[in-house]
Amino acid sequence: MNPLLHVPFDIPFDQIRIEHIVPAIRELIEKSQKAIDAVAEPEAGPQGQRGYEDTILALEQATIDLENAMAVVRHLEAVQNSAELRQAIQTIEPEVSTFYSSIPLNAKLWQAIAAVSINGLKPVERRCVEKHIDFFRRHGAELEPESKKRLLDLDVELQGLCTKFSSNVLDATNAFELVIADENKLAGLPEHAKAMARANAEAKGAAGYRFTLQAPSLMPVLTYLEDEEIRRTLWQANNRRAMGGDFDNRLLLRRILELRREKAHLLGFFTFADFVLADRMAQRGLVAREFVYELEHATRERFAAEHEELEKFAGKKLEPWDLAYYSEKMRLALYDIDEEALRPYFEVNQVLKGMFRLFEGLLGIEIVEPPGAQVYDPAVTYYEIHSGGRMMGAFFADWFPRESKRGGAWMQGLITGGPRPDGSFAPHLGVICGNMTPPAPGKPALLTHREVETIFHEFGHLLHHCLSEVEVRSLSGTSVPWDFVELPSQIMENWCWERASLDFIARHNETGQSIPDDLLEKLRRARTFRGASMQMRQLGFGTVDLVLHTDFDPNIEMDLVELSNHVLQRFTPVTLPEDYGMILSFTHLFAHPVGYAAGYYSYKWAEVLDADAFSRFQEEGVLNPAVGREYREKILSQGNSHEVRELFHNFMGREPNQEALLKRIGLH
């Protein structure tokens, strides 16, 4: 039997073959379509009303097997990419896209949804009905037949273009290598980075030291290597990925923006940003742009001063590939804090063990690693989360880079649980991935403090998914507006700075000692170092995203790379080269038909929320289980069962404000 036809909670990765994908997905599309047709066909009840269970609930259940199968397939694409797997996905994605896009365009189904009576429904069920009606309207339910057909065509083409964009970035990343034969050229590079580069070269049958564009290889070079020419080479290679050659994303970028703009207009929105943000906290593109501009205005003066201080310290006019290098030197000079001195305290297994114990106590959960669990790669581990005598969820943890694995860090829900017919609650299943510093030969994996923050960040998303107790599947877990979804992840990073919580995770890998007080004090004093510059970098990404998704007009001849660089230059203290092409590898925006498109501002929006929410922990105790349980109850467990502003207000007792964020980054 094809294992993708009904994905069990214990996913049989050893049985899944690439040749299973296309036939299974096609069969599941057909099965789901029949179920949807059955929902749309029955006669309406009294006065033309439809019931919640036989319409809304039945519609949600119609696609569960397809959703679970595609979650597994897309997960494998991200962590075990191959030409054969890519071909299978490129074959099936247009059919999947067509199917999902057709759901709100089904006239009979729309009539059924619109006729559902909300009388007597629970609040969460009433909200589910309202969300379905809003979703159908925003996605074309009331369009004329010709416009519906065009919308379907747009979605199919968008899916294919975005998949190709992502593949080009992965291929361009893997296509680059720099092998250095002379160790003398590696002055300044930490020993762990040299050991990793040496092992990397040996694995490829090369002599010397091999560097790639994967973050654990790239970042130590940019941060520590004295040789400016090598820094320049890697910086330029990283920011020219997918710019020319076999993996050129320039035409794809333009076409993606064209299709998104046309889709928004077809659906009655002035811009794609307005379409995307209609059901988010910002609601309109203009509101998001005003939010970003206000933060930029509050940051700009300090931003300029920081760069003036850095150039004075360096004694030269800085180039882009100099920033990380001289910033680290200046940080060391000012605060006597060396990021590398912290690595021995952050051995990956100790970090994970300590993080689990920390949030077990804070949230009232238990995390266990059951023996014999099946995983999709030997480097992956599997855990279960228990609470109140039941398993709330489980997850895979996959932390180190592979050539078959995409870059970055992320959390993905694989299975969303919920109420069973017998009254019990099925658990959730997810995966957290990163590309952290791997172990050198014969040595443990020692992480940077920033990598530790990333692990906490993704674990926050995972807890949001696994601790959800919402009865309605489509409102569960991380199914919240994207400018709120980063709150449960970003708030977690705060525990990486507090002595009480660091004592759980930070132990010297040889002596077992916790971080000395003087080293911790240096780390904390340095937290706001170049805080304005880091904020401006994020605001630049958010601004270029909104500009591209509000101002782009295909009827006006423009070079999109040039336009993007013009915007980004405003947020960059050094002069960007003409061939700067970061936008062409910006997968957050262009690897998915929507993704973070017109939504990258969400990171800063949610950072306002997370800084504000964490202030309550600071006031009442960062390890206070009463506050932790309340946070779990009022935020993590609630999913999208209420308006997210209401959820925040329920936890904090007031509306959010920016003061805590500005204070955290040193602006107030």
Brief synopsis:
This protein is α+β, with helices and mostly antiparallel strands and 668 residues long. It is 54% helix and 6% strand. Among the domains are: 130 residues, Up-down Bundle (Glutathione S-transferase Yfyf (Class Pi), Chain A, domain 2); 65 residues, no CATH class; 249 residues, Neurolysin, domain 3.
Description:
- Among the domains are: 13-142, Glutathione S-transferase Yfyf (Class Pi), Chain A, domain 2 (Up-down Bundle); 176-240, no CATH class; 344-530 and 603-664, Neurolysin, domain 3 (Orthogonal Bundle), CATH 1.10.1370.
- The protein is built from 27 helices and nine strands.
- It has helices at residues 18-40, 52-62, 64-79, 83-102, 107-114, 123-138, 145-175, 191-203, 215-224, 228-238, 250-266, 272-277, 285-314, 323-335, 339-342, 348-363, 449-466, 487-490, 499-505, 517-525, 531-548, 560-569, 587-590, 602-620, 625-636, 644-652, 659-664, and strands spanning 178-180, 209-211, 366-368, 381-387, 390-398, 410-415, 418-419, 425-426, 428-433.
- The strands form three sheets. A five-stranded mixed sheet has the order 3-4-5-9-6. It has a two-stranded antiparallel ribbon with strand order 1-2. Strands 7-8 form a two-stranded antiparallel ribbon.
- A hairpin with a 5-residue loop joins strand 7 and strand 8 (425-426).
- It is globular, with a radius of gyration of 25 Å.
- The model has no long low-confidence stretch (mean pLDDT 95).
